[in-house]
Amino acid sequence: MHATLPLLRSSEFPAIARKRLETLQVNVGYRCNQTCVHCHVNAGPNRTEEMGRDVVDAVLAFLRASAVKTLDVTGGAPELNPHFRSLVAAARVLGVHVIDRCNLTILNEPGHEDLAEFLAAHRVEVIASLPCYLEDNVDRQRGKGVFSASIVALKKLNALGYGRADTGLALSLVYNPQGPTLPPPQGALEDAYRSHLRREYGIEFNRLYTLANMPIQRFGSTLISKGQFNSYMKLLRDSHHDENLEQVMCRTLLSVDWQGYVYDCDFNQMLELPARFGAKPRPKLADLIGRDLEGRPIVVADHCFGCTAGQGSSCGGALG
Q1: Which residues pair with 27 in a beta bridge?
Q2: Which of 248, 212, 252 is nearest to 232 (CA)?
Q3: Does an H or E element contain 236, and which?
Q4: Domains of the chain
């Protein structure tokens, strides 16, 4: 796989600083039951990295000592980590809102048949990847049979109350472009998703988030192989909007990897660009317990234009 960091280091991205920390995003491991071409984590079935009990305990200690009210759990398929359920349950006891970044198909895997019920019982918000509402497009991006398995999983979530306005069980879907283009307007695409999925499958969801593909890891390497990396970076730079800087996720979010090291965002984590919080070149979450991070500078490089291009792109979808 081609390395993308050397192509991203020289950057004119504006300097930005942290606001008050609101969300702790924890990547509990890179193992996944899928291998998607757009994956910025380079996750897959053969990855072995996973968060151990000691780091899970550090996450919970940080939550107890901080005012952070949202724990955003991601992977890989985060549910494959053996400590996933205990982490979720303990965070909910603390009164922390939990988000599960779910690929949907994991809900159908052997050994995870009761996963949807577990998520509903703990009132976990599900943000699920469904990069298109058409079967051919999804299977081309994520693998043969993924779309039909995703529909089965969505129906299972709907049956438990997810995606319905009166239950409080939030279900959002995530769209990624098929290639080196910016996402279309989020509102119009959400309407198209809702109309098609409701008409064809009887599926309901709360929101659609549109995310730009990041020029790193598997997607970045594919761009390099196809000779499209420079043109995609030009598109991102030319589409930058300063007003999106106020809402980028790194200003209120802290990213933690499976070993407990901290980063300004999940994308920096994948590029191994650690956050700068003092003398340690690679600070760990345990080092930050009780510390005020507001005002600290954020580590940036050229991939950051992926969050500010066009309507903007963040873990919560479009910014503008």
Answers
A1: 74
A2: 212
A3: helix 229-238
A4: 5-308 (3.20.20)
pTM for this predicted structure = 0.93
State both tokens at 15: 């300097």
Contact 30, 42 (CB under 8 A): yes
What pLDDT, on the 0 to 100 scale, is given for residue 40? 65
Can you say whether residue 283 is alpha, beta or left, with left for phi > 0 and alpha for psi between -120 and 50 degrees?
A: beta
CA distances to 246, 252, 255 from 293, rounded to whole Å, are 17, 10, 13
The DSSP bridge partners found for residue 24 are 71, 254
Rounded CA gap, 58 and 262, in Å?
12
Neighbouring CB atoms inside 10 A of 46's CB total 9
Amino acid at 212: A
pLDDT confidence of residue 45: 75
Amino acid letter, residue 161: G
**Strands across the sheet containing 70-74:** 207-210, 171-175, 125-129, 97-102, 70-74, 23-27, 253-256, 262-263
- The DSSP output letter for 252 is T
Give the integer Cα–Cα distance in Å for 43 and 31. Answer: 6
Residue 297 corresponds to which tokens in the numbers above? Answer: 């500078």
Q: Are 21 and 66 in contact (CB under 8 A)?
A: yes
The span from the CA of 31 to the CA of 126, in Å, is 19
- The CA-atom distances, in angstroms, between 22 and each of 11, 64, 82 are 27, 14, 26
Q: Name the nearest CA neighbour of 294 among 244, 251, 245.
A: 251
Tens digits of residue pLDDT in 265-314:
999 998 999 999 877 789 999 999 989 999 999 999 999 999 999 988 77
Instruction: Give the residue among 133, 253, 243 at the shortest CA–CA distance from 184.
Output: 133
